[in-house]
Amino acid sequence: MYLRITLAQLDAVLGDFDHNVEKIKKAIDIAELERSDILIFPELFLTGYPPEDLILRTSFLKRNMQALNNVINYTKNKNTLVLLGFINVDTDAHNAAAIIQNGKLLGVYHKHLLPNYSVFDERRYFAPGDSPTIISLKEAKIGITICEDIWSPIGPMHEEVLEGAQIIMNLSASPYYYGKRQLRKNYVSQKAYDYHCPIVYCNLIGGQDELVFDGGSIVVDSNGNIVAEGKPFEEDIITVDLEIEENLRSNLHDPRRRHIEKGYFSPPVFIKAEGNFQHKNLKVTGKISYNMTKEEEIFKALVLGLKDYVRKNGFIKVVLGLSGGMDSSLVAVIAVEALGKENVVGILMPSMYSSEHSINDAKKLSENLGIEHHIISISEVYHSYEEALENIFKNYPRDITEENIQARIRGNYLMALSNKFGYLVLTTGNKSETATGYATLYGDMAGGLSVIKDVYKTDIYKIAAWYNSWKGSEIIPENIFIKPPSAELRPDQTDQDTLPPYEILDEILRLYIEEERAVEEIVERGFEKETVKYVARLVDKNEYKRRQGPIGIKISKRAFGKDRRMPITNKYREW
Amino acid sequence: MYLRITLAQLDAVLGDFDHNVEKIKKAIDIAELERSDILIFPELFLTGYPPEDLILRTSFLKRNMQALNNVINYTKNKNTLVLLGFINVDTDAHNAAAIIQNGKLLGVYHKHLLPNYSVFDERRYFAPGDSPTIISLKEAKIGITICEDIWSPIGPMHEEVLEGAQIIMNLSASPYYYGKRQLRKNYVSQKAYDYHCPIVYCNLIGGQDELVFDGGSIVVDSNGNIVAEGKPFEEDIITVDLEIEENLRSNLHDPRRRHIEKGYFSPPVFIKAEGNFQHKNLKVTGKISYNMTKEEEIFKALVLGLKDYVRKNGFIKVVLGLSGGMDSSLVAVIAVEALGKENVVGILMPSMYSSEHSINDAKKLSENLGIEHHIISISEVYHSYEEALENIFKNYPRDITEENIQARIRGNYLMALSNKFGYLVLTTGNKSETATGYATLYGDMAGGLSVIKDVYKTDIYKIAAWYNSWKGSEIIPENIFIKPPSAELRPDQTDQDTLPPYEILDEILRLYIEEERAVEEIVERGFEKETVKYVARLVDKNEYKRRQGPIGIKISKRAFGKDRRMPITNKYREW
Questions:
Q1: Which residue, A95, A198, A472, B564, has fewest beta-carbon neighbours within 10 Å?
Q2: pTM of the shown model
Q3: What local confidence, expressed as pLDDT, does residue A151 receive?
């Protein structure tokens, strides 16, 4: 017996119920046309994910219930069973899946395992469910799970399979980081193999503040083989016919059953749905396995994150400072890819310390990309600051103060353009810089979105090189790859005057930030003790700057932002 | 039989184990001198509270265990039983109380109820305990709890009393907001009365980033009467002799006992300690009931929050812009109170739109306070911006852009002073302004700490008036109270050109932010629909600004910051 299943891997807009409901209705129409038995949406698709403290607003929860009723009504006289992520409100709020068919809400499943680590705060908002839930449709028994529920040996999938489930549906909103796409495939496929039970994994796509959801939904058969896959970083609706067999594993003796006696789980809930279609031939849309290099994958994540941030916040155009360096060049390239060249404006803001080649490289890049660009010198304004502060600064030597004033004039220019023309300002700091505080607060850190904030400098170069070779053209001028990185805030300055070489710096940062290794442990791996301590000190000391910087797009396992919550006032020292 | 109990209501420095251990040792010496039976510290006193993601660093957890061992060794040949908050690490991390006597760790209690709402993220870090714990000392049975554990009907206090506990010890780190001091007294006193069981509540004091811990530890007898109280907003060590009686309530039949059978709680843990002292006479230090007006209470909270932020982050002096308006005047006053007049520098930065009275009022205030102050005009620098942007802005009318440029020049000045002289910049925006975005990002929002960020404009005036009357002198000049609030960024501008009257605005904000009321509900209370919608729109639209503003001191039930986690990308609308 076959079940025909449609996965709606779509982009929700957070809080835009009308928009989301329209998308849901269109997907229902498609599934109905396809004669699909089941249509599955991502986790919390009705509200968008994650709604954060909007969940504390009763009015928001009510609007969500109204929207659900609107969807339920729309399914009248339709046959496909719909699994839709929404917030259910009983004595508490639950991250839930509505089970809908033919104008009726057949049941509601509540997510059991609520992640409260990394970027997740689900225990802040939701009460956990404790009822494994199984739908019978035709002769098939279908277990329901939401995201985290399958990412642990103690989730309800185990109970559901024990109770006879022959297929597991999973509604997900799993944010991207590099490596996670492969991790998901391996994990879900191993799980299906382990339980000899197919899994339908439907993930969200789209950008939401710091997070990018990459889609990459998968359907895995009972042998752990991936039979269909949603497009990465794009909306996709795929339909698959899956053969459903009796699951012999469900008869195995299991010591975890005592959890039921102990009241760990409530008894399972069984829901009866109508099977309206018969399918015999195997239909599979959704190409299997999209392979990408690391560089391409991160580039696409950044493009999607930027595009959705700009569009969902109602901006059309973006503006950024072009220094002729690699960071701003890569951000310009990402912006053009995301928004089109007509929506990207580059501003060259040379100072007395800017080299001729910087201006030329930035111009060349702008011309290669075909973007509007302007040159506004900061020299005159800088001199007027010098005069204004002359009295109060006399007898004090020049220091970083004068460098920061320059960076802040540039910030003021870009914000003025933003105010006057409604552009969103993009900042161009990378992760190595964000980590070490090698940036000026309110200066080059001024802007609405920090596009490459989570990308190390060494990766920036690799992605840039990949981009040029992808385009088959030196859009990012060769000279930008060759010259040593510099902030150009004083004569002959280079980054390596104050920072260790980026190959060393980035690896120390990765160990310190992503792996939370002690300074000692990093030294044991062969790095110079003084260097490691210096880097750790920079990271710790610059928490105050990061706290005021714009949000950036998470592409690593541990990004600055919601993912890493360090106190500012902090006298803990490993250096 | 009497127990002599010492409460160490002290200020920990987050992550500074050496400092915290020194304080612990001194308190142990005092308790020993006092011949106290028990010495109780606040929650997580060893690490400081809240350590946030430092808890994810294994090296931090190890350092915490080393520091604990250091304390344990120090108690050798001493008699007082010590209850110390630390992080216990077994298969998981726990928010714990160490039970220490005479060089031995007699036991460890794990907090049961882990708050994960408001500013709290304890489920991110800790696994909950499930063993109610009772210490016998002399003939007394002493139940242990940590903070939240007593703030719910389902905490372990209930079990402990049922198992015979005659007194409950509570280690707390309860952050201040206005109203909480009274709430705590009422709640703890009601709880003691309810169970006919004395409670010793020892709270942290000191500032940590957004949070202020106000101390106000209390000892409540079995009739619910407060018998001793720690000083508000100050360190205090108080000692109390409490008479311990058999608790008859512990024999009551209780339907919740079935939780034990259900495995909800593990069986209670009993710990035997030595009773080394005999006390007959009633000793009580710690004055009962410190009464303060709302204005005084908030003022003191801000003074403590500011002082600790400055000192714990290694700053000596602060600098702020003085506009001659009420907000910056009050911040100057708070800074002088916290740091001394010699550590506060005021900068007057008049533009072409600044009125004569603004400059005079700011000067007058500086003279009254006796603080260093300087005048640096922004006019010339502003003109240089106008020239630099002339080309790109031609054909576009003047608008908010030009106002923001002025504010950002001021921000750049203050940051330059910060960079050159090592001052911390204080920002002066109030809650009404922060809520509505009536401030310039990177302009008047530039700085390290936003002192009055959580205080509504209407309260600002009240606190200022209280301050003058407290000092018995018009330190804040009368004219500042009288003139209409204005940003003075264009001719004849006042706040009320774009904002509703502050009495109305603040009440709408309170309902919208603190109570999460729907726009509709606020309108039902008699506010004009268009006004409420306008305010709600401003609040929602300015989330991006708040995200990049400096942290501020929480003094309300719901502050901007960790306490209110709204998405920036958010199309949910009630307006």
A1: A472
A2: 0.95
A3: 93
